[in-house]
Amino acid sequence: MRATRFTAFVLTALIASGAALAASERSEALRREGYQAVYSLDYDRADDLFRQAIAADPNDAAAYRGAAAATWQRVLFLRGTLLVDDYNGHVRSAKAAPMPPPPAELAAVFHRNSERAVALAEKAVGLRYNEAGPHFDLGSALALAVWFGSSVEAKTWDPGRKARRAFYESQLASKLDPTRKDVGLVLGTYRYMLSRMPKTVQLLASIIGFKGSRAEGLRLLEAAAESPSDLQEEAQFRLVLIHTREERHADAAAVIRDMERTHPGNRLLLLEEASALLRNRQAAEAEARLDEGIARLKQETRPLMMGEEGRWHWRRGMARLLTGKLDEAEADLTLALGASDVREWVLARIRIEFGKLADLRGNRAKAEEEYRAALAIASRLDDKRAVGEATRLLAEPFRRQTPVPQVFRP
Questions:
Q1: Which of 190, 57, 64 minimizes the C-alpha distance to 118?
Q2: Residue 266, Cβ neighbours under 10 Å: how many?
């Protein structure tokens, strides 16, 4: 009798274990589909896939984190702040022209899923402290909450709270399993960020466990960007942003091309690649990508990102100006100026391009008028990069330069 009971117990345990494993695998597969949908701009499908992942395994912290990440990306899309340009050189403008709050319903959905992801990961850490997975889940969930707060809710990064814990948990996950590359998103982001801060800030951060390193941050992010995982796409975007700040525009374009191959439905990647090409002084190549993107835009049945149409025509106007197609450039810049929901920092740059156009046509008075209009907007926004460019062009007329060929890595 005892043997029979023992056999029944073992069989029950095996069945339960197998069911749990199947649920976990099903949730993981749905999560990957969900992330594919998010970075293909299919937000409704992504939400549905993450709901299915949660239903498949209600104890999967990663499924809730994915649902929160999908909401975060949707909010950025609706606010028109999904591109590298939105985090490169004009962030001070948020103080003078703050963004409206995110839709209350979406913010509530994000926080609900984010908090559930943290709670489940905390529980898993308590049960399986010596395993890397729970610590990774907890660090990633906390980091996501910090990034939503900084990019959407204009909260100041506080290394003494969630950011510090996110870093600590990710670091512990890396120590428990040195083969994990996905921890590089959190660790690499924070190490790089700290390396760019004043020395006094770095010293204070080191006291509470943060250490900055530009080279190590880049290495970690590159590893995360090359390794398939839930966080791969976000690591790729961070890498593009950092390459842009480091003026490694060829490398940025190469990463974007990798993303285009895996997310062909994301038209905004064409705009990102064109922007990188323009920074790399490859105007003709950028124009070709913009032509393709604008043609796709006209056929698009899905919603456009806030201010998106103006961004496409501003960039193509810039490319055409550099390739000497002045009439076509003027047409694009006019379309950009009249597009809906054009952000003010973009408006300042459109005015700068109009000024360049006037300079190339020999109309210096008109050029100066445009540069002054740009300078007025940029000064009010404390947009130092646009202020610097407008000031320089007021002092010296714009002259088109011969593009310098740049070598892209394969």
A1: 64
A2: 18
Could you give the CA distance from residue 261 to residue 399 in angstroms, rounded to a whole number? 36
One-letter amino acid for residue 225 of the chain: A
Both tokens of residue 52? 């299915």
Q: How many angstroms from the chain centroid is the CA of residue 108?
A: 21
Q: How far is the C-alpha of 113 from the C-alpha of 266, rounded, in Å?
A: 25
Cα-to-chain-centroid distance, residue 331: 30
CA pair distance 39, 34, nearest whole angstrom: 9
* Alpha-carbon torsion angle 81, 85, 86, 89, nearest 10: 180
Q: How far apart are CA 111 and CA 113, in angstroms?
A: 6
The predicted-structure confidence for 331-350, as pLDDT tens digits, reads as follows: 999 999 999 999 999 999 99
* Tens of pLDDT, residues 114-144: 999 999 999 999 999 999 999 999 999 999 9
Closest CA to 235 of 252, 253, 223, 248: 223
Q: What is the 3-state secondary structure (H, E, C) of 287-353?
A: HHHHHHHHHHHHHCCCCCCCCHHHHHHHHHHHHHHHCCCHHHHHHHHHHHHHCCCCCHHHHHHHHHH
CA 129 to mean position of chain CA atoms: 31
Of residues 390 and 15, more confidently modeled: 390
Cβ atoms of residues 196 and 214 within 8 Å: yes
Provide the 8-state DSSP code for 396. S
Residue listed under structure tokens 């339960």: 16
State which fold the 283-410 domain adopts: 1.25.40
Tokens 């959407």 belong to 152
Instruction: Name the token pair of 85.
Output: 């340009």
The pair of structure tokens assigned to 19 is 């069911």
**Separation CA 33–CA 279 (nearest Å):** 33
- Return the domain boundaries, the chain: 283-410
User: Can you read off the two tokens belonging to residue 179?
Assistant: 């083969």
